[in-house]
Amino acid sequence: MVYDADVLGALDPRFKAVPVTAWGRDAAEFAANRPGLADLPTPLVTLDAGALTSNVETLQRWTREVGVDLAPHGKTTMAPALWRAQREAGALGLTVATPWQLTVALREGFDWVMAAYPVLDPAVLRWLSSPRSSRVLVWADSVDVVAAMAPHVAGAAQPLDVLVELGGFGGRTGARSTAAAVEVARAVAGTPGLRLAGVAGYEGAFAHDASPASLTVVRTYLSDLAGLHRRLLAEGLYPPVPGGIVVSAGGSAYFDLVADVLAGLHDPAGGVRVVLRSGAYVAHDDGFYRSITPMGRLDAGELRSAVHGWVRVVSRPEPGLALADAGKRDLPFDEGLPVVQAVRRAGSGDTVPVEEFAVSALNDQHAFVRFPAELDLRVGDVLRLGLSHPCTTFDKWGLLPVVDDARAAQPVLVDWVRTEFG
């Protein structure tokens, strides 16, 4: 896959991943020389080219096999080059989480975008009410949301498609019962400028692990979502919907259950699409998602972490403790601390796996690395870190180097990925 090297132009100090030796040099020319990690600065987060390609192909192949569509969540990476790779692999469209992300997706030429939230910004609603060729779907979870949207879509050139969001007590947003969700659907159906186009929800709000109890909770919620869709059909609330009615669920933790419960509703020829919204799979991780991924419950291939941190030891103040040059400003920490996986002696030696080292804490710009006092770790050594939670990794980096293989003895840079986080 080709990402952003050819369109970046000259590299400069705005991006912390760019070494001083590359300032003023063309990004594509710099990548074409395949510089090694020793030529790049620390701290650093890299993307693994092979893992990215494999992950995109693996999940897209699985969705085809089980019979659902995929509109991956763009908020994970906010990287248009990765979005395009997902679309080229067969994704139906893109999912976003804020009005601004929606505008970025439309600017990037996506003609099918799901805004998985209530759009209430008057200017954005008026903008969406103007003639457009793209299909945009938004969510509503209450009659109040519908009422707040109504004055800004009245007289729209084309109706705005709305999915009724079903939630549950203790969850995030979403109508708290099927009965409440039906009232929302009736309100949408009765509002000029809006069109009832389906139902949606997020099962990940109700569980955070893969225990049998959590899987049962998720399955029950998804059954309720299917039941809501069937009730709206039975009551004749759906109008003719160009592009089809949408039933949508699915993050990156329980997409197997989404397919089990909802795939039977997927009938594009009959005007119904089941749309999965998984996003974290594209980069996966070595923490939370590795522990919970449905690929551990399926015989459908493997997802590999495509994100790794590289940090340099800058202090050895006491036995068994090293301080490295990366912290909360550079590395994710909300779903678990980074894990030390390998060491590169003096920052240029071969990447050698290690097991005895552990990150015990992060400050803003420092990582505390603990290890048995008798082991050797020196100032200048570089550690490879496994990371947890890609969503809070990408947002710390405006530009990420893509290496051929992070597990290689001497990884080399082959491309760049630009992110857009505003």
UniProtKB/TrEMBL annotation:
Highest taxon, organism lineage: Bacteria
Domain D-serine dehydratase-like: 306-404
Pfam families: D-ser_dehydrat (PF14031)
Protein name: D-serine deaminase-like pyridoxal phosphate-dependent protein
Origin organism lineage: Bacteria, Bacillati, Actinomycetota, Actinomycetes, Kineosporiales
